[in-house]
Amino acid sequence: MDILVILLLLIGLLFFLGGAVGIIRMPDFYTRLHPAGKLDTLGILAMVMGLALYNLHHFSLESLLLSIKMFLIVFFVFLASPTATHSIVDAGMRAGLRHWTKKKRKG
């Protein structure tokens, strides 16, 4: 059980790390939102699953209810993240931010 918890926490850490690298490496505002939205959501899912399993190590009604609350938080993040990303992209479009284009080098 502890190995599964550690594995889920490490997977979540890798998703968060991938999201951070994606935000740094992407060229413009719009493409940076993709790793921020997708990988952070998957990272929180994996980490909360690991924490919920760890919480159920000593099974009781209180630990079960706390694990259910953790999964409700993940559910609301899964609802809010795409909505927030869409709103941010819409605000960028309305503000006139242009998409990234690859410029040709002279020479």
List keywords for this structure.
107 residues; mainly alpha; 3 helices; 0% strand; elongated
Please state the CA-atom Rg, rounded to the nearest Å.
18 Å
Instruction: Kindly name the structural category.
Output: mainly alpha
Can you tell me the overall shape?
Answer: elongated
Low-confidence regions: none
Number of helices: 3
How much of the sequence lies in strands comes to under 5%
Write down how many β-strands occur, each being a DSSP E stretch of 2 or more residues. Answer: 0
- Could you estimate the helical fraction of the residues in percent? over 70%
Mean pLDDT: 89
- Sheet having the most strands: none
The domain count comes to 1
Q: Give the SSE string.
A: HHH
End-to-end CA span: 60 Å
Give a concise summary.
The chain has 3 helices and no strands. It is mainly α and 107 residues long.
What does this structure look like?
By secondary structure, the protein is an all-alpha fold. It has one domain. Helices cover 80% and strands 0% of the residues. The protein has helices at 2-25, 29-55, 61-95. Helix 1 packs antiparallel against helix 2 and helix 2 runs antiparallel to helix 3. It is elongated and about 65 Å long. The mean pLDDT is 89.
